[in-house]
Amino acid sequence: MKAAQFYGGKDIRIETVPDPIPETGQVLVKVEAAGICGSDLHGYHRQPDRPLPPRIGGHELAGEIIDIGKDVFNHRSGERVAIEPISPCNDCPECYNGYYNICSNLQHAGGGFAEYMVTRATNAYKIPNSVSHEGGALAEVYAVAVHAVNRAMVSPGDRVAIIGSGPVGLTIAQVADIAGATSIAVLGKPDNPLQIAEKAVGAVPINVDKTDAVEAVMDWSKERGADVVFEAVGGKANTLELATQVAAKRGRVCMVGGHGAPLSFSERFARSKELTIIWSFCYGRRGGKTEFQIAIDLLAAGKLDPNPLVTHRFSLDKITYAFAVASGRDEHGSVKVLVMP
Fold it and tell me: In this structure, what are the phi and psi dihedrals at residue 302, rounded to the nearest 5 degrees?
């Protein structure tokens, strides 16, 4: 089969590798759509001194089961599935309590940037015909949003501000909207994703390159600030400081983005407002159901609309250019870029 082999940084090569064979408890999936994630781009921008051992990336994906291994009883060939990429040990206090996203032995798998991939059968979630393969590929991003909104306890009537207009920020906007947020503001750049948020949930668009973000939020919230602030940027941006500035007194700040540099903020300022700072990582269980399944259920019910988020699609042979487009948001207006093997 053809697969995108990642040797580090921008060294991505389309190569022919052996077809994977499902082992006991596994299924073989023909990949139909795989998304480029922000974490993929972090690696894309880190160029090593020498090539690394090759690996097949891509952990946001959906496809069709074409073969099953031994002892797989809940799936059959021909099923359309979305793949949950994280695998916990299921044998630790965190896993027993439903918080498998913080399992000390958590494994994060890829393999979606190829024609075929194998996964544990328990990680393959059936998707109905009402959910496209493209929508299924975004189930993982929506699961992150479901977990973040649950962690921040968004309630009817809340004013919600989201720092970051990438896929995570825009999916949080949709989930917060159905959770009952009265008004949503999205802070980001460039204009294209902000316009998507405005059309999708009526969000107030705030371009941080064109206006003072704090003043804009205070104007939107009538000088009160946001009841809930989500940080969905990550990287090296010190967005925690901005989050505390735009939060209302006794507001909640939920940090969703993964940061590669230390964060700083005015502790005295945050303490004087009695802010609650919450950290959100991946997704787990809620009410006896995985948040990954909850995301699929919301997509199937038509409560979430992934279509406006998908701005670009490329064949596997064009994956190098797909990464360049995903990385060049200002130039290309990209939000979610999909690879279609």
Answer: 75, 15
